[in-house]
Amino acid sequence: MITPTSESPGAGTVRLVDHLAGELARAGVTHMFGVGGANIEDLYDAVHRGGTVRCVVAKHEFSAVTMADGYARTTNRLGVVAATSGGGAMNLVPGLAEASASRVPVLALVGQPPTGQTGHGAFQDSSGKGGSFDIAEVFAPVSRFCAWVEDADALMELLPRAMAAAQADPRGPAVLLLPKDVQQAQIRLPGHDRTPTPTPTRSPDGAATTPIPTPDVPTTTPDVATTTPTPNRPTTTPMADVPPTPMPAPSAPRLDSSALTAVSDILRGADRVLVVAGEGVAAADARAELAELAGNLGAWVAVTPDAKDVFDNRDPRFAGVAGVMGHANVEECLWRAEVCLLVGTRLPLLARAGLDRALAATDVVCLGPEPPFVPGTALGGSLRDVLRAVTGRLPPRARACPQHAGPVPTPMPDRASRGPGRTVPYAQAIAAVEAALPQRAHVFVDAGNAGASAVHLLPAPRHGRFVVAVGMGGMGYTFGAGIGAALATGQRTYVLAGDGAFFMHGTEVHTAVEYAAPVTFVVFNNNAHAMCALREEFLQQGNRSDDLFGRTDIAAAVAAAFPRLDVTGADDAAQLRTALLRANASGGPAFVALDCDPKEIPPFLPFQSFATDTDRTDHPGSKENSDERGIVHVG
What we know:
This protein is of the alpha/beta class.
């Protein structure tokens, strides 16, 4: 795959970065996302020379991480991001935090100053020497594995460990810190006659840990590995060469037979079951297994806000979305159910808001690799294996589910300001998106009022992802993630975002234009951080207007900046639908903006208790505190 470069001193050697680029390609990586710089330029050069992995240069490192995140979520492969030292490295942290919280496998390759300069005032030094801070301690809390590659031979052991740690349950980011001189170093082509020497590691809190003796078992908790003495780090033994074969996936552990029996007995004895399925179903590619189990149980199926695509939204069993952006029917089904079966979700607050009383009155069973946040009977392990094992214990017959209302949208009051200019109600806009959305498209929904409306109202495409980044809930995530997904799969990808998200990271539209990514950006412009403005009105007596802004013509600005881009300023739902259909027929990016009303209340549970009180002169918060009213405090 790699041949020695002209810089090689002799046959059988390559630059470390050439070897690294080849290993990425051999692991099935097709794209590397990032932003360049002096201390990572050698890796970019190697990837370019290799010609197998495509470099995608983003405008900001946060978006580069979200591109790798979107790539990973839509392909079930390892996403890769590469950035330089200093500010470039620090800009990775929020994106890696999202990947960590949402269990997305991402490998971050982060350049560092040459080792001989660290501790001597090197530009962007973060080695922990000479009074500089230690970048490994920054990355440790948001990664499953973090290691300094402080000599060339160390990469042979650290790279497979990092790749395996990112992809082992619970999945998440792995980080390799690559000094520039180490990237440039010559290494021997891998042989097969030496075995690795175990290396002591350090956990994020600095405590010494017992090393993993071979790279055949991945690290499942964050650890910081080093290979040379530095202040604040233990002295360790340099690594010997080992074959570059990517770490094999660990064999699935045996399921707990007693837990399997207990779960199966509970489910066999239940006539009415509500399944709540989460993002773990998509990560495990276990949609078929979920559908089979639901059929055998005669169950209703609800989904968490970040998992609308894991079950057919048009299936008669589909109960709706659970939690803060969800449907009342889910709670009604839960009250009627004898068992609530969690599949691929721990049921965090966003997914269980409004359901706690009903959950407390229902037997809860959880299937998946991590324990739930609510009391219940848990069966851990690989989700596909667990689903197959449980289904195998049930009678092999499909049953119809009991009658239910289905995901009927929550009615919200009309509070349109009726001011100058035309605004499009969210329900009409989402209906236009639904009418145009290809069933093989991916959908990435950003935070805010527009996002809540999309989660509540828009059915997921039958053969694409429907992604909401609720791990950190960061605004602007979708612009990079949608581009990464579109470039990875070649499928039309929709990004649905508000103007607040656009102003944070919407300039990644430039990246979509440069790489001709098949992304349709739909920006719902209410000229506000409207969810914050509604919170100020409902929860803080409405005496501030910090989050209401003057009107911005986003479509005109984007059209002027990108003459090659298909841009539409839609005045109504019909124009929106026409623009979306036109974009579907093209091979590249498109951009549509429409004006919405910042006073419109989205289908968001924290606001629903106020929806019928909007004409009151006394504010609800003045009489009852938020706990008494059951308000869910989310960002």
